[in-house]
Amino acid sequence: MLGYAVRRSVVALGLVWVVATLVFLVIHLIPGDPAELLLSQGGFAPDPAAVAELRTQLGLDRPLPVQYGSYIGGLLHGDLGHSLLDEHPVAEEIALRLPRTLELIAAAALLAVVFGLPLGTLAALRAGGPADRALSVLAGVSMSVPVFVVGTLVVLVFAQKLRWVSAGGFTPFSRDPLEHLALLAMPAATIALGLAAVVFRMTRSSILEVLGRDYVRTAMAKGVAPLRIVVHHVIRNALIPVVTVLALHLGTLLGGTVLVEYVFNWPGLSGYLVNAVEARDYPEVMGIVLVISVLFVLLNLAVDLLYALLDPRVRHA
Asked: Is 0.85 topped by the overall pTM?
């Protein structure tokens, strides 16, 4: 297990380096001069001398390999650069907003697993029955409704009609834990609705596939208790594709919670990325994209290690 973990970690480090290089190249190949954009006011062309001076201050006049070396060196020291607009350290702003987005995604994933996994198991064990049909229809509807529609309805019902919670916003956990959890509940439930449907459908299809395997039929023929078969033989082997799909969706959510954060006024990383793109603040965009990409790589590394725990054959692949 240790050797497998080391191999996968080395591959993950290589991917991080590749991602960092691609982010640097893509941002620098985008048309437009950041210095000229920053100095443009009211649609008038800026003074060329001022543009040249700002390019020197920002280090944009140096050769691309030199800029790349400085960029990689800064990353090794945890330096993601400074905002072009207010010179605020990008790493500090990301460190402030990233935990909020991760907390939102983690809460949504927990809700999705808590509801999707047992309901998918129930539907598979009652395949073709009324419960299976009803749950499958409900899952189809949940996957079809956009998150901004779900979020709007949640705000309308629970905030405006029932007045159980505020319509949105953010309160630090250290200041008021109950209010923090109340404000977290609505956006997390909004994301979890569609994600739970994905977990449900994948769990159902995976368990149905495992139930048809020879070793399950053999256990049934030997008179092993049905509950023991499901717990010890079916669910564990059916979890691998479920984990795969869940990890892919969680990776997508790292940068895809923009609408949810906007609807509920949740100050996370996605809204910060949108603002940085609109302002053409290249250091902020590079820092955010790099952090999201690295988290996606780490998430896949965690999934690979979880595979090895669920299926020992993976360790020798």
From this structure: no
